[in-house]
Amino acid sequence: MRVEAAENPKHDPIEGVSLDDARSVLRSATPGGGIGLEEVIRTFDCDALHADEILRALAVAGYIEPSDVRGQLLSWTLTPNGNRLALEKKRKRIDPEKVNATVLELIRRAKIINSDPDRLQRITLKLFGSALEERDDYGDVDVSINFHRRQLPVEERERIEAGLRTRQSDHDRQTVMGLVMGAELQDTREIRAVLKKGLPYLSLMRDDPMELGIPFRWLVDHDIDMDAARDVAETTFRPNAPSLFEQTTRELPPVSLMKARYREMAPMTKVSVEGLHIGMEDAPRLEEALWSPWVTDEGDLVPNDARDDPCVRFAGFQHLCPIWKEQIGGVLMLKRALEWCDQNKVWLRDLVPMVSISRGNRCNVIRLGVVGQLIYFEVGPTVQKGSLMPINRTRVSKIDLAGAYAVARALSKMYFEARCAKLAACSATVFLPSVELERLPDFPSLARTGNFKEGGFAGLVRAELR
């Protein structure tokens, strides 16, 4: 399949994926800029087949491309458009008057910066994106910024650099970049802060519209040799050169999903737990290891050899009990998950149906069961983790892990539905069979009304604010 660039709207549409969903998965990219099946599965709660379809749709739309790194599982890197979408903040829409006011204020500030004798750099600004068009409302104001070093005598440069270094943070002074380029970095940081202050809808980007091949209008230009402002015209430039995406036609691999070589097992088959540790956070990683191809040193895609990893044979276990995918409240989800465990003779059916929550500075945990026989999970804004391995048992099957995963997701949902994170510190115990609600009530609201206590709702047997 060949990927061609679309026209040049700010964000090209993606087949089968909303821009908001695409932004979420692009933001999950590792620091090196890579995403794979694991990140998509984690973001969309989908299986590997659907995750692969999403990755290919993102590639066709020009947001990602196959990584050229070899000797690892296939991954994808963000393109310039992918980075732009990932970095874009979601805000309420603004009217044309707000856009115009933002642009005028930005120009005013830029002119002050470009006439400041205590700056190492001058800046040029180009307006691009939706702000060039006539619309009823806008998402933000996209501006390309370029920094240009002033041509200064040695004494003048040293004077300016000395002043900038006095404003460096202690941490910055201790870094290699801070020691080598500290003054210039501080100058850049201060300039961006001056431009951005009080302008929440302004997006300053280092992307050059000329290189991207997209229309733009000059806002501020500067003659570096003369250190003087250049006049700019109210003209929208439309580059003749094709965009980066039109210049380079990228090849998508014909197939980007290959089942690994691994030791396959049936869902009900039980194996020894010795040497195994599988947590709820591992499910996407295992599915990626099962389905993502390996990139050889020659650049070929071959099935991943996972025969030495005893955990990969459990990959995809979470889909055997799909109750956690249902659009229902956490309490009802937990009850159904435990019923499923009972029907499939999963060990969690033996746990006392008591849910306990602990919320504190260092402890954010939700548990099912009682001391000595319980399963518990750590939950937070960016983490949901905990062991799915059976307690006091020597063998485990994919069905066991599926039931434990569904219970884990239900418990996490209960924690978030109760908005426990909005309380500084609290603990609560709920007897599940007595709860008549589909989801836990809002704990902060109960606390404000004095009902965060035993009997505050049916099934709440203990509650404490600490």
UniProtKB/TrEMBL annotation:
Protein name: Uncharacterized protein
Organism: Donghicola tyrosinivorans
